[in-house]
Design goal:
The chain has about 200 residues and is of the alpha+beta class. The chain has two helices and nine strands.
Length: about 200
């Protein structure tokens, strides 16, 4: 008579590696989130700096002229905080998508800007929306903008404040760099947490 077999004892599982989990959590809290916060502040700061000291202000539809240098400029719906009034209407959501601009450079060449075809757009609620960017060529430059429709859905005449300001590319690049670094840290920290949470059998 053959002996009765017994099932093998269940495999023991190693405890979670709490050290890796804790390091991952601390990496997110004390490294990734601060990097992300500073990056966002730098991006917002580069926009606010331009709003505070625009090179030109006007209306859409209409045109403005500025003495442009050989640097990057931003064309946006909005007004400088120092010149805006309480009666100035706010910029509606996605309103810049309906704006087209023609930039005439000192040599007579032109650049076309469309609010709905921006590589990167920036919007702050109710008072600022980028339309596009152009490279200054040094000298008198005209920016003429208009809406695709003269009236809105309610029949009111389309009219909005317009500003042109320098683009602080150094602050913007630093902001994007910090945000990118925060994403890398978050991904690495999550991987570390998942690694520490695994409990392989012995």
């Amino acid at each position: 008579m053959s002996g009765i077999g017994f099932p093998p004892p269940p495999a023991r599982r190693r405890p979670r590696r709490w050290g890796r989990i804790i390091v991952g959590i601390l990496g997110i809290i004390f490294v990734a989130l601060p990097l992300l916060a500073v990056g966002v502040v730098l991006l917002v700061g580069s926009t606010v700096a331009g709003q505070l000291d625009p090179e030109a202000e006007g209306r859409v539809p209409g045109e403005v002229t500025l003495d442009a240098g050989e640097e990057r400029y931003v064309v946006a719906l909005g007004s400088s905080p120092g010149t805006g009034t309480r009666s100035e209407r706010r910029v509606f959501a996605d309103e810049a998508n309906q704006v087209r601009c023609t930039v005439t450079h000192p040599d007579g060449s032109t650049s076309e800007l469309r609010g709905d075809r921006q590589g990167t757009s920036i919007e702050t609620t109710g008072n600022y929306q980028t339309i596009g960017e152009f490279d200054g060529q040094g000298g008198d430059t005209t920016v003429a903008c208009a809406f695709t429709s003269e009236t809105d859905a309610l029949g009111s005449v389309n009219d909005a404040p317009l500003i042109v300001h320098n683009k602080d590319e150094q602050l913007q690049y630093a902001g994007f760099g910090l945000i990118g670094a925060s994403v890398v840290v978050i991904l690495g920290s999550v991987a570390l947490i998942l690694w520490g949470a695994r409990r392989p059998p012995t």
